[in-house]
Design goal:
The complex is a heterodimer. Chain A is of the alpha+beta class. Chain A has helices at about 15-20, 45-55, 65-75; strands at about 1-5, 25, 35, 60-65. Chain A has three helices and four strands; from the N terminus they run βαββαβα. In chain A, the strands form two sheets. In chain A, strands 1-4 form a two-stranded antiparallel ribbon. Chain A has a two-stranded antiparallel sheet with strand order 2-3. In chain A, a hairpin with a 6-residue loop joins strand 2 (about 25) and strand 3. Chain A starts with a strand and ends with a helix. By secondary structure, chain B is of the alpha+beta class. Chain B has a five-stranded mixed beta sheet, covered by helices on one side. Classes of the chains: A alpha+beta, B alpha+beta. At the A-B interface, helix 1 of A face helix 4 and helix 16 of B.
Chain lengths: ~80, ~400
């Protein structure tokens, strides 16, 4: 699972940090998303998806969802 | 695509029960989550009551929040703000790229981490107000003793607005939020508040302090007018919203003793409880409203360029397709994803502050006064159906 963050779209609402502070943080300057772990372990997949879904601005997305699901199943 | 054949309705504001949105909204949502709405100025636009459609529109850049493009579903509200909401710094009523610039300058001030840093001070402020309630003794009006002063003091300290002047800005802000205020009253209150904060901004520029307004005055290229507009927005938004959640939320918990006990006795449910109270009570009484910038088709409905769309987030937050048993208050359910703070680029700037305040204040109140109860029959609690932000005008309690 690879998270893609578009800081140009991000409005700094902080929903991702609230949902999963181990993976997401915010810039002190403009509040935009900072990825602490752009490729979190499969064990976090559900929490990561929830955080991505909560994002109000559509700044977060996941790469290779199918490959990722396969990998998660193998793990 | 189906053409709009449903008869246009008008937006109901009266509530049959204190904690539920008007019944009509729920009926309409189940039958037609996007339906024609007659606006009092003669415009025919839309009312959205379904969760999925409301969320999609809030996130859609083809819908604008510019005040000059919007029709308002409440006649008096439209008149009140025709001239008052178009000014520098009122980024809530701007589209990108204007909005983006302001949001960027402010978002860093309201991050999850910064709000966490405020926790010790918010706990102290909460304790002080509980001490004062204990000293004065029962009964008390929870709104004046607790729900309003805590967020009001917090936002004052954060912005650098002297709390000693609260009588003035609390009065102005309640005029601005009342659906019954005349156009003259609204304009006078807005001018009074702008004058007051304009002075403050100039003082902060001359002698900066360690607060948000000083920081913006010295570290950004915002003009005095822009900074005054921003401060006005943040001051109003910062105390009225959380204040009403604290008042109405406590009322709802008092009417649901098992839920109250869970919040009081189980610290691990508090985060969920705050989200659930936000969802269940949805203090946003009217909108938000958007205007289509181009023709947009949503769920087989064609919303034409220029048409206004009122998004009833209160009804959307009770959509059974998104929240099972939506009319039950269940503080243990995961209610995040509710639309009370909005969605899309205008989602509430201060939401992490509001959450921090509520997570501290509800359990602190319930633990300090385990015997907390209403001092009047529930039906005598005056509800804010006449205000843009719903809640209780007063909440007489004893303990």
């Amino acid at each position: 699972m690879k998270i893609i963050a578009n800081t140009g779209r991000c409005i700094g609402a902080g929903m991702c940090v609230l949902a999963l502070g181990e993976v997401f943080d915010q810039s002190e300057e403009d509040g935009t998303v900072v990825l602490l772990d752009p490729e979190p372990p499969a064990s976090m997949a559900d929490a990561v998806r929830r955080a991505v879904q909560l994002c109000p601005s559509g700044a977060l997305s996941l790469a290779e969802p199918y490959a990722d699901r396969d990998r998660a199943e193998r793990d | 695509m189906t053409e709009a054949t449903t008869r246009p309705v008008t937006l109901p504001l009266t509530r049959e029960r204190p904690f539920d949105p008007p019944d009509a909204l729920g009926l309409w949502r189940d039958e037609d989550p996007i339906r024609p709405l007659a606006y009092p100025d003669g415009h025919q636009g839309w009312l959205v009551t379904g969760y999925a459609a409301a969320r999609a529109i809030l996130a859609d850049a083809r819908f604008s929040t510019r005040i000059d493009l919007l029709h308002t579903p409440v006649a008096q509200r439209a008149a009140q703000f025709r001239n008052t909401l178009r000014r520098p710094g009122f980024f809530l009523r701007m589209d990108p790229p204007d909005h983006t610039r302001y949001r960027r300058l402010l978002a860093g001030q309201f991050t999850v981490r910064r709000m966490k840093g405020l926790e010790p001070r918010i706990e102290e402020i909460t304790r002080d107000h509980l001490d004062a309630m204990e000293r004065v003794g029962a009964p008390a009006d929870l709104v004046q003793a607790f729900a309003l002063p805590i967020p009001s003091l917090v936002i004052c300290e954060l912005l650098g607005v002297p709390y000693a002047d609260r009588e003035k800005f609390q009065r102005d802000s309640s005029v601005l939020l009342s659906l019954n205020s005349s156009v003259e009253q609204v304009e006078a209150a807005m001018n009074d508040l702008l004058d007051y904060l304009d002075d403050l901004v100039r003082r902060k520029r001359a002698e900066p302090d360690d607060d948000l307004v000083s920081g913006l005055a010295t570290e950004t290229d915002l003009t005095d007018d822009e900074l005054t507009g921003i401060t006005t927005l943040l001051l109003i938004a910062g105390h009225e919203t959380t204040a009403n959640m604290l008042g109405l939320g406590t009322f709802a918990l008092l009417r649901n003793p098992e839920q109250l006990a869970a919040v009081r006795d189980h610290p691990e449910v508090v985060d969920h409880a705050v989200e659930e109270l936000l969802r269940y009570l949805t203090v946003i009484h009217i909108g938000p409203i958007r205007a289509a910038l181009e023709d947009v088709e949503i769920d087989g409905r064609l919303i034409r360029a220029g048409e206004s769309v009122t998004l009833s987030v209160a009804a959307a937050n009770r959509d059974p397709e998104r929240f099972p048993e939506p009319d039950q208050l269940d503080v243990t359910r995961p209610a995040s994803g509710h639309l009370t703070f909005g969605h899309g680029i205008h989602q509430c700037l201060g939401q992490q502050l509001a959450r921090t305040e509520m997570r501290i204040a509800y359990p602190a109140l319930l633990r300090r006064f385990p015997g907390l109860r209403l001092a009047v029959p529930a039906e005598e609690v005056p509800m804010r159906t006449d205000m843009a932000i719903y809640g209780v005008h007063r909440l007489p309690v004893t303990w």
